[in-house]
Design brief:
33% of the residues are buried. Helix 3 (64-68) links the parallel strand 3 (57-59) and strand 4 (73-76). It is globular and about 45 Å long. The protein is of the alpha/beta class. The chain is built from seven helices and eight strands; from the N terminus they run E-H-E-H-E-H-E-E-H-E-H-E-H-E-H. An eight-stranded parallel beta barrel has the order 1-2-3-4-5-6-7-8. The two termini are 21 Å apart. Helices cover 28% and strands 19% of the residues.
């Protein structure tokens, strides 16, 4: 699975770029991550994306819009630690340590990310948190599997490497918008 995460700020022709990603055949889902954005601003972006692609969008904020627009899922975070009441779609979460990932695996998440796997592209000075050996060991122990996506410094060119490491796919931010 390959997921693109939006840049935190809005930009011109963003909806058209999201559509291009989803129609490219390389991207399965787009996570709309706009911390601090108003509900109205996020809704405007969703409305600019054709309805037939809404089932491939995931929200990090304003989760009620996921229900209203029948989106694919919601992503939990410190701002929104619980899915909306009666939510039936996918639920995902980000993890920043192998121990946290091992703990969260017990919950019924559709998928989880682990980061940062590589040095970040979009955040200067944000270095990989794991050695190759630590990642191999987590995979051997069944902690990294098909439900775990690599995040942090991931590029489209690294997707086959990520699969070889045992991840189920990747989440891409910086490389998707350059």
């Amino acid at each position: 699975m390959t997921i693109v995460i939006t840049r935190p700020e809005f930009f011109d022709a963003e909806a058209q770029q999201i559509v291009r990603h989803l129609q490219s055949g390389r991207v399965d889902l787009v996570h709309i991550r706009k911390p601090g954005a108003s509900r109205d601003a996020v809704e405007r972006l969703i409305r600019q994306i054709p309805a037939e692609l809404h089932n491939r969008l995931v929200l990090h904020d304003h989760h009620d819009l996921a229900q209203e627009y029948h989106l694919h899922g919601v992503h939990l975070n410190s701002r929104n630690p619980h899915p909306p009441q009666n939510w039936q779609g996918a639920v995902s979460i980000s993890c920043h340590s192998i121990d946290e990932l091992a703990e969260q695996r017990k919950r019924p998440f559709a998928y989880m990310s682990l980061s940062p796997v590589f040095d970040s592209i979009s955040k200067q000075g944000y270095k990989a948190a794991f050695t190759a050996e630590e990642l191999r060991e987590a995979h051997r122990r069944g902690i990294i599997d098909h439900r775990v996506l690599a995040l942090g410094g991931v590029t489209f060119n690294k997707l086959s490497e990520i699969k070889q490491m045992g991840f189920g796919g990747a989440m891409i931010l910086g490389d998707a918008w350059k």
